[in-house]
């Protein structure tokens, strides 16, 4: 599962040229949650800065060509030879950029295919004639140990200039990650936003009739590929959360009949209870640094929020103490605050407290009920479920202002943020049938699409960008 | 069905505000009986329910093994109290039996909150049984939130049937 950034290994490449040494690498390990405010447009602390859709870069014509190879060799990937892998890589990149409503890319189908030597010296007149403004080219090479070296270049056709490049060495099973890294590089360079494609999603796969739904823990890449079931479905599984390092998943299981939170270890496929006691525990959440787990626990009918060390062994700290139901919780990116829901006022509303439980303040005052708050990785907004008639996904500022809806359907709930805080996934339940599907929407609310999953799907949890 | 709900509304107006809250969104008190034969145990070819069994409990309760709640509510009203008294009488008659109260919510809420709400409803029923003399150690609770609806529609009538606490005795 390693992916090596090759920007320091330029000499190993046949195509190595001074350009490798010139420009700064743009692919660097990202922190789990960027705390610095990202570049925004007209940001007055409210919502205007989030409307990335208005930017002109979205109208750019981007040509994405099939990645070239120096030698057409069989590979250990599921994509065939290096030549067909080159086409598959650009297919993934093209789909990434198109499916998220970010760009309108063309190719690789229907475009000229650059030869290997052309990857670093594009035939600009050809692309100008095709009215392409941006050009993505790349190559794939197989190394003697079976690993793959993949290079990705973004050119400005009008300026006849290379804008950015990246190179990665990956194992055969990780070739799609190199494509996502390339997508991230192109997206970041053109939008000024942080990357998000090279990330994974944990969710619940659903099958069966409404009154006997089988619910299984499942994972997939951010584009729906590499899908895998982790539990058999014998015990109902709910509300997973990827750990920030992708090594574990917190989730609720009815194993042994009662709802309890388990930590599932992805390397050993073993799981353990986060706390040994007889009370039901649910709504698990990680802190941004992965060291603390938040959970909700009901004692004699009253639910409060607790935190406990993720390493295990420590004692739990009770953070809330109201007669109402205090549920869920989501840390601010710097870990100093927690946003949570409580019905202490008589109906579900959103509150913010310090991470030690002090200074609990209600922030939602816009009517209806407000639930499932999730703090953006950028820190600037809180996504939540607004219940007023229908259930809709909305966002508000951390102070509770500037509330607006992103979706308008019968039942949309449980938003989860993309690693860059620009896109939200949630699940949508169909009236009567109860069938659930995962959707995503950007912060304009306009680019909405359903994610392809092999079965029905709910409770998405988007993990951070991979290093 | 339309005429029935009209009648229900009229009854509420007459009965006053206390009853009104109970009338507003309660499920029909008379639910269809359990399918016969499913929960019974056969003995020498003849259908015979063993006294003190879960099948016996279901038959004796005649629908009163379940109590219903208003949206987001968990209080025990007079109809619930009557059902729980019937349950308590049975449980006191069979002191060796243990029971689980299953708390549920309707689909029109978020998942985590509904788990908490189901637990609160189950505890509400349990506490009432205990107040009637059932030993607390005999009764456990479990919340299914919105995961196990009994009525499958997406309408007020179905949701009213799903906001419930069901007492199940353990054979």
TrEMBL record, chain A:
Pfam families: PD40, TolB_N. Residues 447-467 are annotated as: Disordered. It is found in: Periplasm. The keyword Cell division applies. The keyword Zinc does not apply. Residues 1-21 form the signal peptide. It comes from the Bacteria. Residues 62-163 form the TolB N-terminal domain. Keywords: Cell cycle, Cell division, Periplasm, Signal. Gene3D superfamilies: TolB, C-terminal domain, TolB, N-terminal domain. SUPFAM superfamilies: TolB, N-terminal domain (SSF52964), Tricorn protease N-terminal domain (SSF69304). The Tol-Pal system is composed of five core proteins: the inner membrane proteins TolA, TolQ and TolR, the periplasmic protein TolB and the outer membrane protein Pal. They form a network linking the inner and outer membranes and the peptidoglycan layer. Part of the Tol-Pal system, which plays a role in outer membrane invagination during cell division and is important for maintaining outer membrane integrity. Belongs to the TolB family. This is Tol-Pal system protein TolB. The lineage of its organism: Bacteria, Pseudomonadati, Pseudomonadota, Alphaproteobacteria, Sphingomonadales. The gene is tolB.
From TrEMBL, chain B:
Residues 27-46 are annotated as: Disordered. Its main location: membrane. It is found in: Cell outer membrane. InterPro entries: Bact_OuterMem_StrucFunc, OMP_bac, OmpA-like, OMPA-like_CS, OmpA-like_sf, Pal, Pal_lipo_C. The keyword Ribosomal protein does not apply. Keywords: Cell cycle, Cell division, Cell outer membrane, Lipoprotein, Membrane, Palmitate, Signal. Residues 1-24 form the signal peptide. It is a lipid-anchor. Residues 56-171 form the OmpA-like domain. Pfam families: OmpA. Coiled coil: none annotated. CDD domains: OmpA_C-like (cd07185). The Tol-Pal system is composed of five core proteins: the inner membrane proteins TolA, TolQ and TolR, the periplasmic protein TolB and the outer membrane protein Pal. They form a network linking the inner and outer membranes and the peptidoglycan layer. Part of the Tol-Pal system, which plays a role in outer membrane invagination during cell division and is important for maintaining outer membrane integrity. Belongs to the Pal lipoprotein family. This is Peptidoglycan-associated lipoprotein. It comes from Novosphingobium anseongense. The gene is pal.
């Amino acid at each position: 599962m390693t992916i090596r950034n090759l920007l320091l290994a330029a000499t190993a490449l046949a195509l190595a040229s001074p350009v490798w040494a010139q420009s700064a690498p743009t692919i660097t390990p990202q922190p789990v949650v960027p705390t610095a405010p990202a570049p925004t447009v007209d940001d007055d602390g409210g919502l205007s800065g989030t409307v990335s859709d208005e930017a002109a870069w979205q109208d750019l014509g981007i040509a994405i060509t099939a990645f070239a190879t120096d030698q057409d060799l069989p590979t250990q990937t599921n994509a065939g030879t290096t030549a067909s892998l080159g086409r598959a890589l650009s297919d993934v990149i093209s789909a990434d950029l198109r499916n998220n409503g970010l760009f309108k890319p063309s190719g690789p189908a229907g475009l000229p295919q650059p030869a290997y030597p052309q990857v670093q010296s594009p035939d600009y007149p050809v692309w100008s004639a095709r009215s392409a403004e941006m050009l993505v080219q790349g190559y794939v090479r197989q190394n003697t140990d079976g690993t793959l070296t993949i290079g990705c270049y973004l050119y400005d056709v009008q300026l006849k200039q290379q804008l950015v490049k990246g190179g990665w060495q990956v194992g055969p099973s990780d070739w799609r990650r190199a494509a996502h890294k390339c997508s991230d590089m192109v997206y970041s360079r053109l939008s000024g936003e942080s990357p998000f494609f090279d990330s994974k999603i944990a969710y619940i796969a659903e099958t069966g009739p409404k009154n006997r739904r089988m619910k299984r823990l499942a994972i997939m890449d951010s584009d729906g590929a590499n899908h895998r079931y982790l539990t058999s479905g014998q015990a109902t599984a709910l509300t997973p959360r990827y750990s920030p390092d992708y090594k574990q998943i917190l989730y609720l299981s009815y194993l042994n009949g009662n709802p309890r939170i388990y930590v599932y270890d992805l390397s050993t496929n073993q799981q353990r209870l986060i706390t040994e006691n007889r009370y039901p525990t649910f709504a698990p959440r990680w802190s941004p640094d992965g060291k603390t787990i938040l959970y909700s626990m009901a004692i004699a009918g009253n639910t409060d929020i607790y935190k406990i060390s993720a390493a295990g062994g420590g004692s739990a700290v009770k953070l809330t103490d109201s007669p109402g139901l205090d549920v869920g919780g989501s840390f601010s990116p710097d870990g100093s605050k927690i946003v949570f829901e409580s019905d202490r006022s008589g109906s579900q509303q959103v509150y913010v407290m310090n991470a030690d439980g002090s200074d609990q303040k209600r922030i939602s005052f816009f009517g209806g009920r407000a639930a499932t708050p999730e703090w953006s990785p950028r820190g600037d907004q809180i996504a939540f479920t607004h219940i007023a008639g229908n259930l809709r996904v909305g966002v508000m500022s951390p102070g509770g202002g500037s509330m607006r809806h992103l979706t308008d359907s019968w039942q949309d709930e449980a938003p989860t943020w993309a690693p860059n805080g620009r896109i939200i996934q949630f699940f949508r339940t169909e009236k009567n049938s109860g069938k659930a599907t995962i959707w995503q929407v950007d912060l304009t609310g306009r680019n909405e699409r359903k994610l392809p999953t092999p079965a029905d799907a709910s409770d998405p949890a988007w993990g951070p960008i991979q290093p | 069905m339309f005429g029935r709900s009209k009648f229900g509304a009229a009854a509420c107006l007459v009965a006053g505000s206390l009853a009104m809250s109970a009338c507003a969104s309660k499920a029909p008190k008379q639910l269809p009986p359990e399918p016969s034969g499913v929960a019974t145990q056969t003995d020498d070819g003849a259908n015979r329910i063993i006294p003190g069994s879960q099948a016996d409990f279901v038959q004796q309760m005649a629908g009163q093994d379940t109590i219903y709640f208003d949206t987001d509510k968990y209080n025990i009203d007079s109809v619930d109290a009557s059902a729980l008294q019937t349950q308590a009488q049975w449980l006191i008659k069979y002191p060796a039996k243990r029971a689980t109260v299953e708390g549920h919510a309707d689909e029109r809420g978020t998942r985590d909150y509904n788990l908490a709400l189901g637990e609160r409803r189950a505890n509400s029923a349990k506490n009432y049984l205990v107040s009637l003399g059932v030993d607390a150690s005999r009764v456990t609770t479990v919340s299914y939130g919105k995961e196990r609806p009994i009525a499958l529609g997406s309408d007020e009538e179905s949701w009213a049937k799903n906001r419930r606490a069901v007492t199940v005795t353990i054979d």
